[in-house]
Q: What sequence folds into this?
């Protein structure tokens, strides 16, 4: 089951990447872009993903529309999705000075890191993700441990 969750998560992350970096106006265009990226999808799968991601048509300013996330829903949706991902995919969290390390099930670190990045938490300078490990660098003016401890607590509370 974790492999299926990982595939769906990766595919939906790819959808968000596609709509962020290009103009996609139809489900067929999105399905074609996913296929070009190596995802074997049907129109029904793309339709379900669009619904789950709550994508909407937004004006491009050229009398055309493209898929996107509504501005008012983007942050709340991202946090809700991150909370679910933390519960389902994160195995452990540890901290050392201003570094917080999350271990995920194999193949899920990049998707989780992408949603952490999307949360735009001010205490995070950046993230690096491999296959099953995420390293978060915590911004601190002088003391390291309190910020890392607060971030670790915030992430762990999302797993409950």
A:
């Amino acid at each position: 089951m974790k492999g299926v969750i990982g595939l769906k998560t990766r595919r939906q992350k790819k959808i968000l990447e596609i709509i962020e970096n290009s103009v996609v106006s139809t489900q067929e265009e999105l399905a074609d872009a996913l296929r070009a990226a190596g995802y074997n999808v049907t129109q029904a799968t793309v339709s379900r993903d669009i619904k789950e991601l709550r994508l909407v048509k937004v004006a491009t300013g050229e009398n055309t529309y493209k898929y996107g996330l509504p501005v008012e829903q983007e942050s709340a949706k991202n946090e809700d999705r991150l909370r679910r991902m933390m519960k389902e995919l994160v195995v452990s969290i540890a901290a050392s000075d201003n570094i917080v390390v999350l271990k995920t099930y194999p193949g899920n670190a990049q998707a989780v890191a992408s949603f952490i990045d999307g949360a735009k938490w001010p205490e995070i300078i950046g993230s690096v993700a491999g296959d099953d490990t995420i390293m978060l660098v915590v911004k601190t003016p002088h003391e390291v441990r309190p910020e890392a401890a607060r971030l670790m607590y915030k992430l762990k509370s999302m797993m409950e």
